[in-house]
Amino acid sequence: MKKLILMGAMALTAAAAQAQDYKTIMEKTFLAFDTTQNQEVRMEQSNKMSLIVKRFDNEWTAHYYAAYSKVFISYFEKDNAKKDAFLDEADKEKADAVSILKKENDETYVLGAMIASARMGVDPMNRWQKYGKIFSDNLESAKEVNPDNPRMYYIQATNKYFTPKTFGGGKKVALPYFEKAEALFAKEKGGDISKPYWGKDKNAYFIEQCKTPDKD
Q1: How far is CA 203 from CA 56, 157, 173, 210, in A?
Q2: What is the rounded distance in angstroms from the CA atom of residue 80 to the CA atom of residue 123?
Q3: What is d(CA 172, CA 44) in angstroms, rounded to the nearest whole number?
Q4: With 93 labelled, which of 65, 78, 195, 213 sits at a CA distance of 20 to 30 A?
Q5: According to CATH, what is the number of the domain 1-143?
Q6: What are the pLDDT digits (tens) for 101-127?
Q7: Side-chain half-sphere of 52: how many Cα atoms within 13 Å?
Q8: Is the pTM of this model over 0.70?
């Protein structure tokens, strides 16, 4: 019995050490990705995330962050075929995250909305009907799971921000969503990479942009 207890304790210690190792590596890599303005650095850090996925394949957030990185890279890719290729990779990583969780959660729904919005952005005129619905459905599902997720409102806000005024978007329309997100970001504890908390700084940037008058 003592031997079994000792073996169990050793297994728990090893699992805890592995989890801590994952958090340390992913936090450093994700922050390097999320704070750079250089696309080459983004690519480099995204590739590192893909390697982290291989090492920590059972961590749902490893797949989540890898998917997030692919979506973000697609925003700055000029070739539409390459954009879709990155988003294909994002879809796969998201599916793997959901498989590990055995269900969707609010963060995977928000990620799904991000992917749908990026897909729509590749060819808005021909894709808005299909991916617009997927975008909205994912955000509605996220709200049902956790109405206080700030990233949900941040994604809604950025979508409004980049939508032309003639189609119901623009700074004025987006600002209330950014402000809603800001209030919820203020309540979010953060600091644990295994519990997504990204977006606060980006949200603050867009609030500033919304309050800056457009140049004639």
Answers
A1: 30, 9, 15, 11
A2: 8
A3: 36
A4: 78
A5: 1.25.40
A6: 999 999 999 999 999 999 999 999 999
A7: 29
A8: yes
